[in-house]
Amino acid sequence: xxxxxxxxxxxxxxxxxxxxxxxxIYAYVKNNEAxxxxxxxxxxxxxxxxxxxxxxxxxxxxxxxxxxxxxIGGLPHLRHVPIYGSVHAEYSLAKFYxxxxxxxxxxxxxxxxxxxxxxxxxTLMPNPSHSKCTMxxxxxxxxxxxxxxxxxxxxxxxxxxxxxTIEMHRDGTKFLRTIIEGYLVCPAHGRMTYxxxxxxxxxxxxxxxxxxxxQSYEQFSELFxxxxxxxxxxxxxxxxxxxx
Length: 244
Ligand SMILES: [Zn+2]
Hints:
Radius of gyration: 17 Å
Order of helices and strands: EEEEHEEHEEEEEHEHHH
Mean pLDDT: 96
Strand content: 25-35%
Number of domains: 1
Number of helices: 6
Bound molecules: zinc ion
Strand order of the largest sheet: 1-2-3-4-5-6-7
CATH class: Alpha Beta
Helix content: 25-40%
Shape: globular
Oligomer: single chain
CATH topology: Metallo-beta-lactamase, Chain A
Distance between the termini: 41 Å
Low-confidence stretches: none
CATH architecture: 4-Layer Sandwich
């Protein structure tokens, strides 16, 4: 685990290996209290918890970008604090678990709300995109975008994965583009960045496969001169178009 510090934000980075994406857990810290944004798989969360304990930092709140298994592993350990997440959490959880009570948010967010933490406010903005339960989280100039941006540690761009429809993912990405300017993008996978080109490439890619679902990833890549690593998601994404 690598710890990157950016102002009062701690990024706990679990590196990528081979073709596997790494993942991040974030702790926004004030006065030795923390808001945890996403919490990886259980083993990742426990490592982070140990480090926070060592530093004398207490977790006061959890906020979820979405409810896929690589983001929620710590939630059973966080039932004593408020857990904020999209009202559509259950919809996503039911796809992966029979029994998901320990992973549900305790505060279901339907429309944009502001949540106070010490002298700052978090803005929680539901925005169905990569998943139906995607929620953007903004505080100061940090934007927690979950899997709306996915990078490898070498900064290569991971191909987007449309868990729902291509249109939902594309339109959510378009919305994100309208608000993200000036924020430090904090992805759940890969390094923090001010660059938002990835979002533009994702919109181009989805528009392209909606029109030409029969084309290969290589054809897209050559035409637009855009490269995504992990292009095995292409066949999954294209299957979403054909189903529609
Ligand atoms: Zn993820």
